[in-house]
Automatic annotation (TrEMBL):
Keyword NAD: yes
Start and end residues of each D-isomer specific 2-hydroxyacid dehydrogenase NAD-binding domain: 99-278
InterPro entries linked: D-isomer_2-hydroxyacid_DH, D-isomer_2_OHA_DH_cat_dom, D-isomer_DH_CS, D-isomer_DH_NAD-bd, NAD(P)-bd_dom_sf
Enzyme class: oxidoreductase
Superkingdom: Bacteria
UniProt domain D-isomer specific 2-hydroxyacid dehydrogenase catalytic: residue ranges: 12-309
Keywords: NAD, Oxidoreductase
E.C. code: 1.1.1.26
Protein name: Glyoxylate reductase
Amino acid sequence: DTAEQALDGLGDVERRTDDRPLSARELRVGLASADVFCPTVSDTIDALVLGDLDLSGKLIANFGAGTSHIDVAAARAAGAVISNTPDVLTDCTADVAMLLILAVARRAGEGERQLRAGAWPGWHPIHMMGKQVSGSVLGLVGFGRIAQAIAQRGAKGFGMEILVWNRSPVASELLAACAARQVGTLDELLARADFVSLNIPGGQQTHHLIDAGRLQKMKPTAFLINTARGTVVDEAALVQALDQGVIAGAGLDVFEEEPRVHAGLLQRENVVLLPHLGSATMETRVAMGLRVAENIRHWQAGEPLRDPVA
Ligand code: 8YV
């Protein structure tokens, strides 16, 4: 309610009436008619949608941190300014990364499915044995806010050794605060980690960063964890790697073409699949809504945006 009230106080608000993503046409109409448009990750605002729209002076206030569903350059060229909602979903998303690590390593989904199916044979010394998370090596691809929060959880909560690969050097104080060590190459991280956790934005630059070749670099006992964007992983190559035992399993909260999920993943026991719920707690979604409202207030007052997307 607090987020709804905050929005109501800002002007005439037209709300969506259902959960489905907006069509290209609906997006165009929304962008053309409103001063402020608030898309979600499901709303693809690409050059085709933007076309020749004039968005001068308008605000696209994204409900979420990641903006790879928006062609930011094209939207800015059309005259819009863009904001997002970082920070407020950091802890929530890091929690889900840990959830995926634990669930896939300790075979939680598989075990629960067996039990619910009435197929639990009873306790046995080697029944449903998994991989020990405590004391293992956690490799973080990218070291933004969410990765740092995962590092804290892994190091402090589970005594994990934390390795980081990042495109640019990370300040030594920041690494020390997270008990993390930066490695020189992505391949080095892939070769050493028991869990490879992806924490980089989507978009062209990171498209299929984790492809068949990179999966081959991982240990056959290692798990891939993705709470970032589905496009970072070549999903077909991942399925093939799982089929061939190239890696031990995967925990995924995001997919290449949401809400479609590769059929080869759905069949497998050694993957944990979540429906993009990294930030899905009431506390976090309210905080995201309030952050959208804050950005709108700044824009209305002619002040610099709270969270500008450049
Ligand atoms: C959001 C996310 O739920 O913020 C992000 O980047 O991926 C999710 O946590 C989503 O973006 C909502 O639009």
